[in-house]
Every structure is written in structure tokens, then in C-alpha cells.
Amino acid sequence: MTARKAVVVTPAGLAEPPAGDSLAYTLQGITPVVGGSYQHDGSTIIVFEPVAALGSTTLTLSASPGDGQVIRVTSRYTITTLTVSAGSGRSIVGAPTTIGPTAPFGLVYRAASTTWFRI
Questions:
Q1: Which one of 12, 91, 107, 110 has the minimum C-beta count within 10 Å?
Q2: pLDDT digits (tens, 9 = 90+) for 1-48
Q3: How many CB atoms lie within 10 A of CB 28?
Q4: Model pTM?
């Protein structure tokens, strides 16, 4: 897992934010292996970068999400069996079971129901 770093989305892709820009996203890059289990570090964007298509991987979401927290997840190659865990005492409505370059997903957290909802 790599360290979190701030990025902004531009027409040309992801870039370093301008000095003093407060609208930056944080990026968590993960190089998964088959059967691997990974912890969301609170970043707003998660990018899986396997070296090829994978059979299975697990992602456990942040241990302390904030109300209205949004995350986006994508992958360079297809992960055919993706398990997304909401963590202790939380649930996910519409949890994805696969991910790939043409099938990213987003989630938003609702504290009142301790639930992540797919967006």
C-alpha cells in the first residue's frame, strides 16, 4: 500500500493540486494479489493496480467513516470476486461483487443508519 497523497481531477487525468488548493482528493493506490485483504485508509479515491486480472480480493472500509463521506473505487484490471466489508457494526447496501476498468463504483456513508450506500 502506498502513502496517501492529495490529487485533483483535471481533463488530462489526476494531477498535483495547485499550491493552497483546498479541494484536493486523497488517493490510495493498492497493488493487490489473489486472496489479498486490504484496509481503506480514509482516502476519497481507491485505485487497485493489479499486474493482471485477479480471482479474488477483499477491501475493508474505513473504521471511522464520517457522515456523508464519499469514496470512489476503480481497478486497472478485472477482479472477478471482490468482497467489500463495511467493518464492525456497519452495513453496505448494493455492495459490488466485482470491479474492473469499465465497472468502477462509489459509496456514500450515512451515519444515522451506519450504512454505506452505493452511488
A1: 12
A2: 445 556 655 666 666 666 655 556 789 999 999 999 999 999 999 999
A3: 22
A4: 0.79
Specify whether domain 32-118 bears CATH 2.170.140: no
Query: Where in the chain are the domains?
Result: 32-118
Question: Other CB atoms closer than 10 Å to residue 10's CB: what's the count?
Answer: 9
Residue 64's beta-bridge partner residues? none
The separation between the first and the last C-alpha atoms of the chain, rounded to the nearest angstrom, is: 25
92-98: long-range contacts, CB 8 A cutoff, minimum separation 24: 92/61, 92/116, 92/117, 92/118, 93/117, 93/118, 94/118
Three-state SS letters, 32-51: CCCCEEEECCCCCEEEECCC
Cell readout for 3 is 502513502
Say how far apart CA 94 and CA 5 lie, in whole Å: 28
Is the Cα dihedral 49, 53, 54, 55 positive or negative?
positive
Measured CA to CA, the distance from residue 40 to residue 59 in angstroms comes to 7
